[in-house]
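Support request, please re-run this one:
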Amino acid sequence: MRVRLGELSERLAGEFVGDPELTVTRIGPLDSADRETISFLANPRYQSQLAGSAAGCIIVGPGLREAAAARGATIVCDDPYLAFARLTQWWAGQSRARPEPGIHPTAVVEAGARIDAAASIGPMAFVGRGARIAAGAVIAAQSHVGAGAMVGEGTVLEPRVVLGEGCRIGARGLVHSGAVIGADGFGFAPTEGRWEKIEQLGSVVIGDDVEVGANTCIDRGALEDTVIEDGVKLDNLIQIGHNVHIGAHCAFAGCVGVAGSARIGRHCTAGGGAMILGHLEIVDHVHITAATVVSRSIRKPGQYSGSFPFDDNASWEKNAATLRQLHTLRERLRALERKRSFSEE
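Re-run finished. Output below.
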């Protein structure tokens, strides 16, 4: 795909510096760009990379306008990282083929399923009885939509996704391959040295504009529903337990685990490998760093770190710094004790 820089500048609502008739054929990073590449620079710390880059055009913020323009074509945007994100969305929409509407001959659609004529059901996909698939939705090859489940307008289930019976996902969602939405929650009652299964009678309700990563699992609720609100972004290999409630616009990185019945507010983030124990409450605007174990409820917004145990980030960093000096402090204490003992003799 070859695109005029003038057209890209107009789409990004940026100020263009250079020849608008120049074209690019790809988006790429500064260090490997050539003259047919459009790149971006959002962090001023990497300004030194500008002069040496061969990129045909660079998206920058107002503070880097002059430096970028000195080397060639430039698009100046208030938020270059956001402009880059929107550019990738447009580029993907232009360059990636979208499945044609219709039901593939090898798909299985049970009686009573309602599929909009503008939806696409791929090869060997399954749509259960009473399921509803909205306009523009894509159920890719070998994906499974259970009985009574709902897929919103424009939502894409990539190959081999499972959306369990009665589960719902809203509009403009994206669920990557291998994800399982609506498996049974982990519920068992101990009795006489064995485990008696507690049937999981709830569902999973997912809002609009949600992305679920590859091989991520979201369990159905035991009695009430597991809820993922609008705009949530879940990375790969995440486990969301039964009856969890995640507020709007949260973002969790890979391998995060959230145990059953935890309730998480809006605009929260969790770094890779973080763990949130069950039945806890976390308020809005809480940011949990990677590998942190959250073992008690968080009532105050802020950044939290650690596992011995976790604390607000500033306190944890002080404690961690002290811990690193523990051996030295021990040796100093021993030396003082020896000196005191010698003096007493």
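The mean pLDDT is 96. The chain has six helices and 40 strands.
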